[in-house]
Amino acid sequence: MLFDGKDLSQWRNFKGDGLSDKWVVEDGAIKLAGAGGGDILTRAKYRDFDLRLDWKIAEGGNSGIFVLADETGEHIYSHAPEIQILDNERHPDNKLDTHLSGSLYDMIASPAASHRIAGEWNRVRILLDQGRLTIWQNGVQTASVEIHGAEWKRLVAASKFAGWAGFAANESGHIGLQDHGDVVWFKNLKIKELKR
Prior knowledge:
Pfam families: 3keto-disac_hyd (PF06439). The protein has one helix and twelve strands, in the order ββββββββββαββ. The protein has one helix at about 150-155; strands at about 10-15, 25, 30, 40, 50-55, 60-70, 80-85, 120-130, 130-135, 140-145, 175, 185-195. The chain is globular, with a radius of gyration of 15 Å. The model has no long low-confidence stretch (mean pLDDT about 95).
């Protein structure tokens, strides 16, 4: 359990030791109560893992889930791939299919069948197994790609990350949750490390 409905001790702010009081526990969920909480990440790092969580976004909201995050870049997203969280109907970042919820942000678009409206809970599974990143949202596979494989390199080259040194270079890293300035909730956060 990365969060048991009460205890936030496994999380801290990006490049910080503690946790902003804008990240609160509400009805068994982690809630970002408003802008200024900052991005947060797990205290532990993970290499091969099976991550499951539920998320809910406020109307007009935007957030994200990061994998393989580090703290050597200026931002949490400097080196970390992002699984997008969005109110697909109302947020202005809805113009590109690769920016809709469940997408591997700016790289692989999620199918419409994986989407739910703002205010509803969404279930996400993120599997990283020996370099293959597979994502499901609401039971629908939204992406499956070998990090640093030929398709990955093509996708990165066509994305905003094309010139980002160190993007997705880590073999292990933190799980991160984004403060994009909007209210967002997370619950049932569980991770299983895949032992080799």
